[in-house]
Amino acid sequence: MSAHVTFQGFPVNHYGHLEPFGFDNFFSAQFASISAPSLCPARVASDGKETFELLGVPVHTSTLSGRLRFQAADGERPVVGDWVAVAVAGDHALIHHVLPRRTEIVRRAAGSQGRRHIVAANVDHLFFVTSATGDFNVRRIERYLMLAFASRARPVLVLNKADLVTDPQPLVTSLQAVAPGVDVHAVSAHAGRGLGALQAYLGCGQTVAMLGSSGVGKSSLINSLLGERWMPEAQVREGDGKGRHTTTHRQLVLRQQGGLLLDNPGLREVGLVRGQGVLDDVFVDVAREALRCRFRDCRHRGEPGCAVEQAVEEGRLDPGRFESHRRLEDEIASATRRQTGAPAKRRWKSAHKAMRAFSKLNPKRES
Ligand code: GDP
Ligand code: ZN
Asked: What residue owns the CA closest to ligand 1's atom 19?
């Protein structure tokens, strides 16, 4: 990184003051590779059509450079959570570059032919909030997990409104059954129960996004996790006089006690865009059984020697879960065909790749 970089008039050769916003070695290296001494890094706290709110630079307004505005494809424009390289002039910043993303939450744009819509970037932990009453649906959780694994953010399942049931444990157990290896927490935003476990994900610079149906308590949880005091950066809104938190506008908020929170209202319907490999991440139990299928490319649809179908028959694999696996697999296949026009063969290739990786972790299997 250049020794000539200045920030607020002071020469700096690292960006320690940006660590609370999530700037780490990864982004530092990305920023250094741009090698433009007049630019400095900043993080997008909200993305409007014309203007963007930024964290980490003392500006009131920011807009896109001509290149980003007129030449960049959809996926190259900044979204909330992105790290960008900006030129600061007075209290205005011009966004010149979007740094490569570590994670990317993508959904299929509504009504489109499989077009990708990037909802947020550089989220570390994705909280899927469900309610202990009403909203509970394990099949939906599987869809959310597909989205999380595809994004590369770490999924966490949050069962809110635990105060409304006598014993949340059976619900927790059924969540654990559809999410092997994923953390599950029963909490109550109202009673303040279990919030400590959630705070643990909000270390300095860690970004948490909340997903889940309307009414499950995402806003309540965000408010409980933020506490009374907000960082001033989060208060900057451009002249619309609205509060800092609104459910119609994605906004990244810095938490006084550490970490950043993002409410994601735009994700009620999860259209899947990619991931045969991701399917194996979500359904590790199915993938594990599949290692013993007679044919390496077994589709578990009536082939002889299918260990997955055998596991269902013998009661080791929940038939509902197997059915869900099938449906999601079909959905991904058709989304993949729409996006790339690729023949179905290609997805089996990626399935094999995931399986080989899995075999390495599971040396018992004969090759
Ligand atoms: P959002 O749409 O996901 O943001 O949900 P809200 O945070 O607006 O909450 C929806 C409703 O559930 C509100 O009436 C809240 O007061 C209520 N609520 C949220 N968390 C809890 C909780 O832990 N326990 C109970 N009993 N009610 C809750
Ligand atoms: Zn099989």
From this structure: 217
